[in-house]
Specification:
Number of strands: 5
Number of helices: 2
Strand order of the largest sheet: 4-3-2-1-5
Oligomer: single chain
Shape: globular
Strand content: 25-35%
Helix content: 10-25%
């Protein structure tokens, strides 16, 4: 039996989510806030305010699956992108996130002059 899906798309919800929400509450966020289909061949990742818990949801053709991870000591390095509802990740970035690494890296700088 296959225990994990290999999705075509991986979406990370940039904001924090109230973790009292179960699958149905998170599906509302996917459809209304992210404007994406929860039935797509995709994985959706959510984080709590303390950044020590993750919920991952995907549709496996027969129902929704939710994975839940709780860190006992550390925090996830969650991106803070105020102007975006979600970002798309690669499988490598998902591995980095689950391993505790920063998935965004340095933000590009926009200079108009060297100022010398």
């Amino acid at each position: 039996m296959k225990m994990f899906v290999e999705p075509n798309e991986i979406y990370l919800h940039c904001g924090y989510v109230d973790f009292r929400k179960s699958i149905n509450g998170l599906l509302v966020i996917i459809e209304h806030e992210l404007a994406l289909s929860p039935f797509a061949d995709a994985m959706f990742i959510f984080c709590n305010r303390n950044q020590d818990k993750l919920k991952i949801i995907y549709w496996d053709k027969t129902g929704f699956v939710m994975w839940y991870k709780v860190l006992q000591k550390h925090r996830f390095k969650w991106p803070k992108l105020d102007d975006m509802q979600h970002i798309q990740l690669s499988e490598q970035q998902l591995d980095w996130l689950l391993s505790g690494m920063d998935i965004i890296g340095h933000q590009p700088l926009d200079y108009t002059s060297m100022g010398l």
